Amino acid sequence: MLMTSFKNKVVVVTGAASGIGLAICGRFAKAGAVLGLLDMDAESLKAAEEMLCDGGARCLSVPCDVSRQDACTMAIGQILDHFGGIDVLVNNAGITQRSAFVDTDIAVFEKVMAVNFFGSLYCTKAAIHSLIERKGLIIVNESIAGIAPLLGRTGYSASKHALHGLFTSLRTEIRETGTHVMTVCPGFVETNLQTRAMGGDGRVTQRPQSRVGGQQTPEKVADIIYRGAQKRKDLLVLTPVGKLTWWMSRLLPPLYERIMAKQLKSELDR
After folding, report:
1. Residues forming the active site
2. 79-114 CB burial, b ≥16 within 10 A, e <16
3. pLDDT value at position 241?
4. What pLDDT does residue 209 have?
5. pLDDT tens digits, residue range 76-112?
6. Cβ pair 21, 92 in contact under 8 A
7. Taking residues 21-27, what's their average pLDDT?
8. Residues 201-253: tens digit of each pLDDT
9. Domain range list for the chain
10. Would you say 27 and 55 are in contact if contact means Cβ atoms under 8 Å apart?
11. What global pTM score does this model have?
């Protein structure tokens, strides 16, 4: 079932205060959607809400640390009480890590999993009954790291692979209800996510990031996601490099791993 119009549909976005999340809010607002904004940065979240409302959008912002189940349950509950239901949930909030496995504290793995995996799980669990009732859509910002290995990002990649397993399996469970799950794999995007990447000790890494291919703007990514949502796609791989990565990692895994390691190994040079 296609959802060609999002006018007056309730769209909830996590990580909504900046980057891809804010751009997604802007794109759905342009289509007439009603917005629920979640982010742990209360000040930036309020500014995002004011900007969207000044542009004519109906929206409600709720500060939320998605790594906490109680916070997610409360935030989703507030949106359900305010708007009466949820039609689209965009699990976008995330953090990243760049460091060698041997140099990475267990606490870093736990933090990345708490935000990237469990945050999406908690919000989806809290919203699932309303989404099923409305034959809605779950969108998951998964990353190429969810479908292929990436050097120096073991924690990040583990969290994204876990998302892929959870939400592709969930899609098979709820498809018969008319509810859909779309996973999204952006490439490199011009956001502050990478500048805040954790190193092995949990502090922001000072190592420069390696990049393969060009960067997309958050607005470009949001527009592709919006169009994919209209068609209820299963999977969106957004860049040519991403699509090549997808196929090579499946058809020629040893070759892919050698090329990938060569491109990214400078990040781990001591």
Report:
1. 156
2. bbeebeebbbbbbbbbbbbbbeeeebeeebbebbbb
3. 84
4. 66
5. 999 999 999 999 999 999 999 989 999 999 999 999 9
6. yes
7. 96
8. 889 887 766 666 667 899 999 999 999 999 999 999 988 888 888 888 888 88
9. 10-268
10. no
11. 0.93
The encoded tokens of residue 60 equal: 């409600």
* Among the four given CATH numbers 3.40.50.150, 3.30.465.60, 3.40.50.1240, 3.40.50.720, the one describing domain 10-268: 3.40.50.720
SS (H, E, C) the chain: CCCCCCCCCEEEEECCCCHHHHHHHHHHHHCCCEEEEEECCHHHHHHHHHHHHHCCCEEEEEECCCCCHHHHHHHHHHHHHHHCCCCEEEECCCCCECECHHHCCHHHHHHHHHHHHHHHHHHHHHHHHHHHHCCCEEEEECCHHHCCCCCCEHHHHHHHHHHHHHHHHHHHHHHHHCCEEEEEECCCECCCCHHHCECCCCCECCCCCCCCCCCECHHHHHHHHHHHHHHCCCEEECCHHHHHHHHHHHHCHHHHHHHHHHHHHHHHCC
Q: Which residues contact 49 (CB under 8 A, 6 or more apart)?
A: 37, 59, 60, 61
